[in-house]
Amino acid sequence: MANILLVEDEVSVRLALELQLSAHGEVYAADDREEWEELRQELLRTDTPLDLAVIDLCLPGVAGFDFDAGFAIIEQVGREHGNPPVIVITVRNDKDAWDRALGCPAVHYFVTKGWRADELKEAVTRSLAGDAVGLTLRGQIEGVDENLTYGR
């Protein structure tokens, strides 16, 4: 069974993701940066490897939602857990978010919220299998074609 990190602040989305991801392994979930820090310390203390990370880019912070929070977690996970594949989930559907995700070598998928269950299942299955499948996204992104796939 795989060890899967999930960082998502919306309760209903997190619960749905936990249910879907649990079919693939043990899910370690956090809902904000503070909870992530606690979970991070526990994962390091127990030397728990991560096989996949599913991370929301926009997380609540002191001054509202912080777009950089998700990227900071992606960098920490990479440094501390050997760059497991990352699936980015986000409500942000703009070219800036897309371009920043492209700059993270561990990001395998970029999925805007409102995804279909079969899309996420494929992303998880392929990422856990080690397929370098690239980035996919659905939805209208300003400056990016709909249903664009970018292969690494």
Tell me the helix content. 25-40%
End-to-end distance:
26 Å
CATH architecture: 3-Layer(aba) Sandwich
Shape by Cα distribution: globular
Tell me the fraction of residues in β-strands, as a range: 25-35%
Mean pLDDT: 81
What's the CATH topology name? Rossmann fold
- Any low-confidence stretches, pLDDT <50, length ≥5? 137-152
**Overall radius of gyration:** 14 Å
- Derived from helix and strand composition plus strand pairing, the structural class reads alpha/beta
- The overall strand count is 9
List the strand order in the largest sheet: 2-1-3-6-7
Classified by CATH, the class is Alpha Beta
List the helices and strands and how they pair.
Layout (H helix, E strand, L loop, with lengths): L1 E6 L3 H11 L3 E6 L2 H13 L6 E5 L2 E3 L2 E3 H15 L4 E5 L4 H8 L4 E6 L4 H12 L6 E2 L12 E2 L2
Parallel strand pairs: 1-2, 1-3, 3-6, 6-7
Antiparallel strand pairs: 4-5, 8-9
What are the defining features of this structure?
152 residues; Rossmann fold; globular; disordered C terminus; 5-stranded parallel β-sheet; 5 helices; alpha/beta; two-stranded antiparallel ribbon
